[in-house]
Design a protein that fits this description.
Chains A, B, C, D: InterPro entries: ArAA_b-elim_lyase/Thr_aldolase, PyrdxlP-dep_Trfase, PyrdxlP-dep_Trfase_major, PyrdxlP-dep_Trfase_small. The structure is a homotetramer. In chain A, 40% of the residues lie in helices and 15% in strands. The first copy, chain A, is an alpha/beta fold. Chain A folds into 2 domains: 241 residues, Aspartate Aminotransferase, domain 2, CATH 3.40.640.10; 87 residues, Aspartate Aminotransferase, domain 1 (Alpha-Beta Complex). The first copy, chain A, is globular and about 60 Å long.
Amino acid sequence: MNFSSDNVSPICPEILAAIASQSDSSALPYGQDDETAKLDTAFSQLFETDCVVVPVATGTAANLIGLSNLVSPYGGVVCHHEAHINQTESTGVAFFGGGAKLLTMDGPSAKIEADRLDEFLSAQSNRGIHAVDPECVAITQATEFGAVYTVDEIHAIGRVCKTHDMRLFMDGARFANAVASLGCHPADITWKAGVDVLTFGATKNGALAVDAIVLFDKTLRKKTEKARKRGGHLFSKHRYLAVQLLAYLENDLWLKNARHANMAARLLGQSLTSLGARMVHIPQGNELFVRMDDDLAALLRAAGIIFRPWPAVGPGAYRFVTAWNSPLEAITTLPGDLNLA
Amino acid sequence: MNFSSDNVSPICPEILAAIASQSDSSALPYGQDDETAKLDTAFSQLFETDCVVVPVATGTAANLIGLSNLVSPYGGVVCHHEAHINQTESTGVAFFGGGAKLLTMDGPSAKIEADRLDEFLSAQSNRGIHAVDPECVAITQATEFGAVYTVDEIHAIGRVCKTHDMRLFMDGARFANAVASLGCHPADITWKAGVDVLTFGATKNGALAVDAIVLFDKTLRKKTEKARKRGGHLFSKHRYLAVQLLAYLENDLWLKNARHANMAARLLGQSLTSLGARMVHIPQGNELFVRMDDDLAALLRAAGIIFRPWPAVGPGAYRFVTAWNSPLEAITTLPGDLNLA
Amino acid sequence: MNFSSDNVSPICPEILAAIASQSDSSALPYGQDDETAKLDTAFSQLFETDCVVVPVATGTAANLIGLSNLVSPYGGVVCHHEAHINQTESTGVAFFGGGAKLLTMDGPSAKIEADRLDEFLSAQSNRGIHAVDPECVAITQATEFGAVYTVDEIHAIGRVCKTHDMRLFMDGARFANAVASLGCHPADITWKAGVDVLTFGATKNGALAVDAIVLFDKTLRKKTEKARKRGGHLFSKHRYLAVQLLAYLENDLWLKNARHANMAARLLGQSLTSLGARMVHIPQGNELFVRMDDDLAALLRAAGIIFRPWPAVGPGAYRFVTAWNSPLEAITTLPGDLNLA
Amino acid sequence: MNFSSDNVSPICPEILAAIASQSDSSALPYGQDDETAKLDTAFSQLFETDCVVVPVATGTAANLIGLSNLVSPYGGVVCHHEAHINQTESTGVAFFGGGAKLLTMDGPSAKIEADRLDEFLSAQSNRGIHAVDPECVAITQATEFGAVYTVDEIHAIGRVCKTHDMRLFMDGARFANAVASLGCHPADITWKAGVDVLTFGATKNGALAVDAIVLFDKTLRKKTEKARKRGGHLFSKHRYLAVQLLAYLENDLWLKNARHANMAARLLGQSLTSLGARMVHIPQGNELFVRMDDDLAALLRAAGIIFRPWPAVGPGAYRFVTAWNSPLEAITTLPGDLNLA
């Protein structure tokens, strides 16, 4: 059982079938094909609002291109210190943003809190020509520490952004896990709360390689498409991005996969707790952060279970990530199996 | 029959099978998997020299990242005016190259000629701090106009580059078609001629989405990998890039597909000629450029044949591109079928 | 007599006096001082329209920052192949423009012709996501080859720009020489013809180091000021830029200096012609391009006259540039003095 | 008395005389003149080591260009959170550094402490391809809070940098004030401690507009000169930068001016303390940070004394900056004069 990340999982059958379905036909390149033509409608129906979809092959590309729409080369992007864009995307924000700077703040479970955001923006804004003015706020749903913003929390952040005339970006690499956890409508935590651009992750949740940049501000389409092309992210065989996304939405596969992963995380949390581990955060999506003693860690490893230390949440902490294909039964029987072994 | 480009073709069966083969297993992300580990060896065997392979999903990304290794932000890249990097990759060279500038020259069939390159470099170099000094030469094999550099021509270019202390880059989006056309060893037209970095195209020739940046200068590995990450081009499920490339090399699939496409182009050229079209260039790879009168163009279109006007090679010119799956028989019988219709 | 460029000349007395006048007082930094406060009004009066002035210390900075307002990172700037921004400003346009690309055309005396511009823009625009769309046209007044656009020529260019929805930029490093040559009002060849941004040169024409970015589109102020700061071009002791410009405008010093330089060029042209040189272009501003045999060139050099070969206008060509302080009498008597020597 | 910054002061007489001395002669442009030719020797004598000098007109340009030599587009620059490059230079570091990122730490009086730097570098380095590796450490001497690193402190930082294979940059906008305060040799706190690049400020200390990028690593000359040109920072009338610097070094004017400013700060500190203000830091250079009640602040303001609140050092704090021309007697008699008023 490999819990080192959800991206260790393979492509899921529905998406493989969608790819295979395109094996006998020709199609116009660069997004002029029939499958791509369905995307805007499919996502607009999902979100119950007109929106524009620009797919790319990686979550980092989706974040960097999506975000670059919302900040000038002289401006700042406010994010949590632990945000993927700050910790794990190299100097990509400045690269795609023409120099734009990350302005980081803290908060529990890698969440930004609306009140502190309000203070931060008040302190950082309008400091004159020498300083970097915030222009955009970026949040991650679910967060890098496995937490999920509530509907109210996101609306509160949206209101603060509106007050300070900030754009609002959401890194949704694990958006499906967040929606599955909240049981809300996807609109409730996005455009209805003021989100301008969402990256809607599929790669970690069963796709081969596709994340969608969802533009609720439809005026951003042209700029986004130009940035995608210039960045080398426009696929020639674009239909292969499109069919992955269409299959991902069809019959709520995205939610089905995410619910499975979330369930696996809950069950794994119970199993690990019963073995003596302590939760660092209450697991809300498909990520678990636990503390455990060296003996337990060694025992798990000896049983072939793969997971990673995660010092960012504190000394002695480990991260376990479940996926669409995590084996629920083996997770449930883990304590017994280990004791028997 | 769709000849508008080779990228309208679907994924080929061998590569689909390779992707499908990864459906039941977990693998470490970001290139730490077992399949990726085989790439350097596979390409080193193919090229008969130690080289480093960094795969990305698009040919534009391969070109832009590969090239950015060979030029400083203050330097120039010499290329043909018709080069893909000049005509068809937006402002990508400056983006990935930190401002690096394209310095264009002319030449027949979109080829750079060694003698004129020598003159160009002599005239453009060492013009002082205000000017942009050339630092790198970029050629395309096969060229954007369907021509193929001979082994001697590339060696001559390599010698000029060495004389002027220029790095040499090769855009090999259709490298397979060039090798199939020349019947040479891939080493003969790359590192043996002084090529520092090659982009080895697979997407147009049967893959879903993968082109390999091949570094014959192995010291460029770290910088290339950093540029790939920063550009959002590092796949999490990296094995899916790797298995495409491995399948592409296995049993010389890359050559088999290219030979098919080249053969289709030759046959199509015969068929079109017999119908009254005139070749603009002798077809050497899988691209045909022809002139024909409006009646013939209309006749072909009425028969469902798709192709594109290509004014860059002259007024009244059209481009036909064949692919790994072009129907040889239907191409051969085209004149008769049209006359019958 | 040093005719290698106008920038070999020293600071003129009026501007030195203006600098010296600030030696005993304190002043707020970064443009908040009283002298800077006068700039917008002074230039608005000169141009007879409301405009915004952002001064910087070099002509290259003025061009690069001014131009960066008018083009996106994905767009092209149309200019003459010989334009200073293309030949003599390194990779600066891409640097300040976030990757923006120069699209060059030809034309006599380094001028862009309106008809050919119209054709060029028609051919280059709307070529799809892969290509670089022109977004801005940049002209130089007077041109790099010493020619001066007529009022009608600039209005014709302005109309073409309007038709194609292009912004219009004017590099006015030698704007004063052009106005002095035309005898027109400065408004006639700028905003009345559709110029959005002008760089108004002073450094070559008597100042120590200051060129003004003049924004006829006043909405560009904030972006220009941010670009200036980020580029390290915002002076702390900003009043020293301001007083140079104010002295330069006062009593039409800018025109007085330019008329002197233009007169010197005319006289020098007569003297050189009488010695056997041939004009390449009719001198309109303060630059002369001539052809002469080696004996005459040697004779001039032996007499201590400094000038430069200028192969860009053709083999055997030389450039002579006069300035605000060129010695009119010595220029006039040159033929006789050489013959006596 | 204007203590809002040292850049409110005018040009000092010696430097004005140096500028005026160039009023009657011609000189080759762009640094090919005789005055510029003296710079490397003059600074090499001052620092008692061979070094290269590249002058620019602003301190921000000096920092951004100097620093851009020492970090790649994928790398990080470690600096104090209060560093000028982090707080007051817009997004310039990323702009000139091609995306390079600031990695900030804390420390007393805006100083980086060697021990904590060692820990920081250990924690931040080698975190893999996704993270930004530190490549350079930047310190400010004197710091933004008016403190001066001791010779030992800088050597300790230099040793940590060497251990971690980091380059070392020093922002010396107020380097003269630091040397005057320490009474050391300028070599002691620069190259002898491992500093690769220093910006040697003159603008705040009597010049019109010039700061020198001093390259102790002489291999950086070409890259620095290219970056200067591309950034629009290469003066055509370059001798006017050179003569300012030469006059600044002659007869130790730089130290004379700095000693005056430092003395003024000490005296001002005594005067303010006697009036009831409390020092936040012990003044070591020419900056004072004090706390005082509203009555005293109002009294000072009513007497025409200009100074600024400085919340970065804490609530209720004010900054006073002295300069080469601060009136020592009026500062000394301030308490008495105020009481009389």
